[in-house]
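step: validate -> pass
step: tokenize input -> pass
step: predict -> running
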Amino acid sequence: MQKLQQYSSARSAAPEVDRNSLIEHIRQQLNSQQLGLASSEGFTPVPVSLTPWQLTPAQFNHAKQLAALLGQIQAQATQQLEWLLRLTKGLAKSQTVPGQIWRALHGLYDKRSLKSADKCQAQHSNLMLNRHDFLLDNQQQWRWVESNPIAAGMGPLNSSYLALLRQNQPGPYANNDAITSQAEFLAQGATAMAKLQSEDSLSPLMLIVVDAHEDNIFDQQLLCNAVIRQGVRVERVTVKQLLQCFINDKNQLLWQESRVDLLYWRTGYNPSAELNDQFWHFRAQLEQAAVAQSPTLAGQLTGSKWFQHQFTALLLDDPSAIATQFGLTSAEISTLTQTVVPSFALSGLTLDRAQQLIAEGYWYKTQQEGGGNVARGQAAKDKLANADSADLLMAPIDAALRREAFTSLRQGETTVSTEHISELGIFSLGDEAHYGGYLCRTKPAQNNEGGVHRGGAVLDTIRFPQLTGP
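step: predict -> pass
step: emit ->
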């Protein structure tokens, strides 16, 4: 007779671990391994969950498949510049970073044939290290929140925390190899560009472009150290320092007389004084220089909320156009259709209609990244008076609530509470969008923001229920 198996709680199947000892050990290891964020004191341990999110392998694998599909589409879009610029032309007058990117790309190729431009973009100087964020709704369906091909971080911290947690709570966790896979991807990109440039024996050089006052330096350093172990030199530079580079007569980018093989962008996605006309002129020059970028301007544009808005609208209105553009099957189109969330551009709405949608629960989303750029209710209505042409209202996602007792550790103190929402970010690498680890964050259900830096979320892990039988 065939044996029957059923899922049981991993917590009940795992041996009991002394709770106080576990908490104290994790507290010590977060500090000793410097798993955290930069602060005015120099270091603050990252807030973490001690209650892993229970997902089935099928649920997790489906999220990975969605991330691969989105990553492949975005990678292809960077090589189809005419289509990409046409799809996102609503950014032409937007006073946002995506608007600046659109104008830089359009201006760069305005006097060239777009066929030649597409050919230039297809030379694989664009390395897509992307993170696709999903929420699980109350129908157990993954919903696409957004994608980030620039500043796609915190996978290394999450990977390191998982390694720490599973030392003390063994069990069937979802694999998170963010540090290794992402480092290998970046190192291979730098090495490939170096070989195209020269036969010299010098190791490739990667510049990681960061904020002058970066609070995510510890996460970045985990990744950079792993890239260095792959034989690639790594230098941290700010935007101001990057602008001291120059492009020589061989079309090579030089930093302090050393050829740069890869620019890995971890800043340059929100308006700031550094992102001035000089910066955008330089970024346009980089598009034609012999240097790999993660990402290029086109790659960054595909991660904008405006691209997501326009792609979703076209998918829902004319799925055959998307299928033809990207060579997708009917099953893939169906999967995407079930995953996307409709949105409206405020520029196309009357004030009354915008207020009505907000009253129905729609989220106000700007084109900026990070915390503080989404709003609901009255806070959303307050933004209407100063709306940018690319601001959006996105339909709400009725996210599944985690109702179990949830234990978190923040600045050495534990808290037990209920009703939380978890968000899963899956990293995808390259044109084929291979799996590059995950970022899981969990926040109180009443919080708008789901970030660890801002928003009250904590780093979490994915644990599979254990099979029991017979």
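step: describe -> The domain at 6-306+400-468 is CATH 3.40.50.1760 (Rossmann fold).
step: cleanup -> pass
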